[in-house]
Structures are given as C-alpha cells and as structure tokens.
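Team,

Forwarding the record for the chain on the shared tracking sheet. I've put the sequence and predicted structure together so nobody has to dig through attachments.
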Amino acid sequence: MLRGNIDSAEQLLHSAVQLAGSVNDDELLSQIYYQQAVVSEQKKQFQAALSAFKKYRELSIQLLKDQTTRDSRDKAHSAKRQLEQRARKLIHRVRTQYEYDPEKHLSNVVSETYWWEQLVLFKTQLKSANYAVLVIYHHDSRYLDICTELAHALCTDHDLLSRLNSEHIGLLLADKDEPAEQMHQILKQMLALYPWQRQGLENQSPTVLLQDILTFPFTIEQLELLTIQDEADGRVTE
C-alpha cells in the first residue's frame, strides 16, 4: 500500500487473512480486515470494502466485549479476595472475643491461626528451638474451658496457649527435655486432683500429652488423626 501497488497489497492481505485465521488471532485478523477495506475502497470496490469493514467492526466489538468481561471478572475476583480477607479478620476478632473472656486476663491465650503459625516458625528453627508441645484432649468442651484457665496459670510470658478445636488445647511450651516433662507431670496432677464433680462434670478427666515440637503435626487434621490413633492404642484413655 505504501508503494502504491494496490493489487499486490490485496493479494498479500488475502494470504494474511488465512494465516491469521489459522493461528486464531482475532485482534490481528480485525486489523487485516480493516486494511482490506481500505484497499478495496481505493480500488473503488465499494461492496468488498463494506464487507471487509463489517468484519472488522464485528471482530473489534467482540474483542472490546471480551476485554470488558475480563476486566470485570478481574475486578470481581479482586473485590472478592478483599472481602474474604476482611471477613477472616472479623471472624478472628469475633471468635477471640467470644471464646476468650477478656475479663479473665488470659494474656497467653492466642487464636488457633496464630498458634499454628508460631508452631511452624519454631519448627523451622530445628535444634535451636527451645519449645515443646503439650496437648490437652477431651471430647467435652466444658472440661477444656477449665483446662484453659488451669494451664494458663502455669504459663510464662513466652508460652502460647490456644483452643485448637472443640476437643484439643495446644500449649507451645518455652521449655523442652526435663523442664517440659516436669510441666507435663504437674499439669497431669492438677487435672487429676481438680474437683470436676463440683462443676457438674462426672466423666473422665482430660488427657495431657507431651510431644517434641519437631515431630508434632502441622495441621489440626493431622492432630485429630494422631488422637484417633492414640485412642486405638489405648494411650489417650490411660
């Protein structure tokens, strides 16, 4: 076209239509149709020019619609992610206020999400991690409410206590080896001596298990499976 050779341009554009169609490139194809319309108009083939321009307009409008749809979808996904993040924060705040009475001043009690995050962080420290894990288990959450207060009374500033689910309390203990075992035995004795009957609780007292932080599960699902296995082996009910 730049050289003024309209016939050659028309042939090349015809070949270009076939090539663009074979690679399914609608954006390129729309531009080729536009150039075909220009060439046909210069050759005074107005019907062919109109036909090519209609194809150009049809593809251009479809491309614009597709782009608008993609933009809307991206905005919707972005808005959804933002709402999900806000919802998680609100849920965390509500659960913290609902599950843990601030009047009790249980300063070492944290959310289960934060507890698991810290567990993974301590695990990555490997041998330098000066932590062990105590798990208190009972199928009745009323027992665990009392256990939370009893365990908190034994905590230091560096311990982290959390209600992991309706049957488990996790205590990230800032001790290991013999001091951790002493803490394990003290907590077991406290739960064994606690007057559960005075609280209207007649079932078996909760179980306390001590585990090395490196072998402790990474998720609550794995912990539940471990508890089921311990029950099968008779250790939880000892």
